[in-house]
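chain below, 251 aa
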Amino acid sequence: MLLVAQFDVSNMAWVMAFIAAFVLGVSKSGIKGIATIIVTLMALAFGAKESTGLIVPLLIIGDIFAVIYYNKHTQWKYILRFLPWMMCGVLIGNFIGKDLDEKTFKIGMSVIILCSVVMMYWWDRKKSKKVPTHWLFAGFMGVMAGITTMIGNLAGAFSNIFFLAMRLPKNEFIGTAAWLFLIINLFKLPFHIFSWETITPESLLINLKLIPGIVVGLFIGIRLVKVIKEGFYRKMILLLTALGALLILFR
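prediction:
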């Protein structure tokens, strides 16, 4: 059972959590590829498995804003193609992660983060952006996105590559991803509440205190998404996230 007292939240943990909430808001405003740093900071602040449940309500808040702001750009045909596979992945992830002890879960989360960083780095460096569009490709990416979003809230690397393969323009990319993740995060709620018990009234109190960080991140992110140059920024995020994954593994 997840209890606030169990966290023994230090001032440094709150600082990391607020930074994570801010980055989450920036991410949901449309700046992709930075979700791994959110998961890393929350895991460092509250523990690997406990943090997965803490993050989900915050993600839903950000998703709702993104859906409202980018709704007119949503391309439902891509959601319907990807979502069933992703839901299957969530079911698999729930089964895999339910009874894992904290140490094993921590190792698994660190591996997923590092693999996500490597995948995003490889994609950034890849000269040809051509990606297979066969249904098996959508199926594999969807199942992997579902597993990683359940175990570590880290579906971004897989879903981003799928949407990039569909050649979606920026706003359509953001609007479509917003609805996809709102649906999948709502789908994950019962598993975190009743199966993993990582969402409780106590954890929701922590979420309430972090909402201002999300709101600030959302408004700043909307402005950044119009002007940001991703080169150095993405490399810095990838490096910091990889270092954070190693800290989770060895803390």
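The chain has eleven helices and no strands. The longest helix spans residues 201-227.
thats it, cya
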